[in-house]
Amino acid sequence: MSIELSERRGALDVGSDAVGLDATAASSRSYQVRTYGCQMNVHDSERIAGLLEDAGYVRAADGSDADLVVFNTCAIRENADNKLYGNLSHLAPAKSARPGMQIAVGGCLAQKDKDSVLAKAPWVDVVFGTHNIGSLPTLLERARHNESAQVEILETLDRFPSTLPARRESAYSGWVSVSVGCNNTCTFCIVPSLRGKEVDRRPGDVLAEVQALVDQGVLEVTLLGQNVNAYGMSFGDPEQPRNRGAFAELLRACGGIDGLERVRFTSPHPAEFTDDVIDAMAETPNVCPQLHMPLQSGSDRVLKAMRRSYRQRKFLGILDKVRAAMPHAAITTDIIVGFPGETEEDFQQTLDVVAAARFSSAFTFQYSPRPGTPAATMPDQVPPEVVGERYKRLIALQEQICLTENQELVGTDVELLVVADEGRKSAHTQRLTGRARDGRLVHFAAGDRRGHDVIRPGDVVTTRLTGAAPHHLIADAGVGTHRRTRAGDAHEASRMPTTAPIGVGLGMPTIGAAPAEPVTVGCAGGCG
After folding, report:
1. Where does [4Fe-4S] cluster 2 bind (predicted)?
2. Which of 73, 159, 292, 302 is the most buried (most CB within 10 A)?
3. For residues 33 and 76, is the Cβ–Cβ distance under 8 A?
């Protein structure tokens, strides 16, 4: 999974009563969720928002102070720790001045630092981990009642996050987890110790959640897991047989969902990426021609030290197969610079692979040791100044590749799903932003449109590419076609999708139980 550090805030409208809580009291309390880290954390925050709304909390208005601030944390990089504790310090005076205000810390850093969060920030009210998100409303109520901090960190997952309600961040695009945890033992990664061993959801539960989103107008779904292509080998339901081809089958099944226009997934592992997945991608029309394939290093010696069970030749062979089946596929990656023991020769091999792979973009990181990982105690840690210099060279090479690859697309027509994150890029050019099917970001000239012709996030347009930059494309040729969608209607009305709890808890018996059926949430007309 790409580790892109970001901060997002979420929390939406009033929900229903939560079991065991005083929803009447909670209904007057506002909340805010601040998210740091990867896609998995962003999706977990949607579950947190859903839980809080079910307990009667309401969204804090933009720019206002919240009665509850929840930090959903990342532990992959050191600056994640620094950012969290810095923000907690900034909130300390506000909490002192506002009796009844609460602060909760959850996620990967809370799981890792369960014994030290309160020592560093004693004004925090609740600390919860990656395995017990569902406990948050109860812990908050207990902290209020007992007037003391509550810490609950489970070592293993007791139920899938999908069995919790979710309040989504987007009207047109949604995350759907296929699994939790990871069975790999990469020496630089702390995720397996924080999220546990991989446990896969039943296919019917995954498809039911996808259907629930589509029923509310969502056009695009991203299947999410630490290692999505291992799906099928670690089902949480003991009655579900292991199936090495389950992920390819899941992609094909998504192709049969009417109204689902785009399917993406992240992230696969090169060691377990199989030809049946490539075939499913190429043969399923709504699966996008986009693949995120983490490289980490181009040196076989470093890959072995990282405990990455593939080598340079296998990696490049996968890319060749993908491009043979989908010539215009956009392939992205993750790369770590300065892993312990990396020599100049090792780094040059990484540059050689990057030059050969022609990635459309890359998430690049300077290695930083994380306590609790084998790599943190390895000898021959690379000096920071050497890591920094190599990092600059890698960035320069990848930027040039990105620009060249994007320039080759100028003059072609693209279909864009209009997105909200970037907004209008220029009042003079009247540009909006969309995502192409291959995932590339495109700023396009929308023109001066009014009334029914206004283009909204969630709508679909076609246009022609006229310019390129390393990280985006320009389309100033005007909009060819504009299709208004239910997702655009929902976004315009500030109506985000919600999904009810879907599926069974871990290890629940299924003998005699009916198979999972697609779940419809909202009215048949898609009004949500």
Report:
1. 182, 186, 189
2. 73
3. no
Which pTM value belongs to this model? 0.79
Tokens representing 192 are 């397996």
Q: For residues 190 and 227, which has the higher predicted lDDT (pLDDT)?
A: 227
Given a contact cutoff of 8 angstroms between Cβ atoms, the answer to whether 178 and 203 are in contact is no
Q: Which CATH architecture has domain 412-499?
A: Beta Barrel (2.40)
For helices 39-54 and 136-146, the axis angle rounded to 10 degrees is 60
Asked if residue 109 has pLDDT above 90, the reply is no
pLDDT at 78: 63
For domain 162-409, give the fold: pyruvate-formate lyase- activating enzyme (3.80.30)
Separation in Å, CA 417 to CA 42, 209, 258, 370: 20, 21, 17, 38
**Confidence class for position 158, pLDDT limits 50, 70, 90:** low
pLDDT tens-digit series, residues 293-328: 999 999 999 999 999 999 999 999 999 999 999 999
Would the annotation count 527 as a binding residue? Answer: no
The answer to the question of whether 186 is labelled as a binding residue is: yes
Class of domain 30-152: alpha beta
Helix ranges, 166-271 (H) = 191-195, 203-215, 246-254
402 a known binding residue?
Answer: no
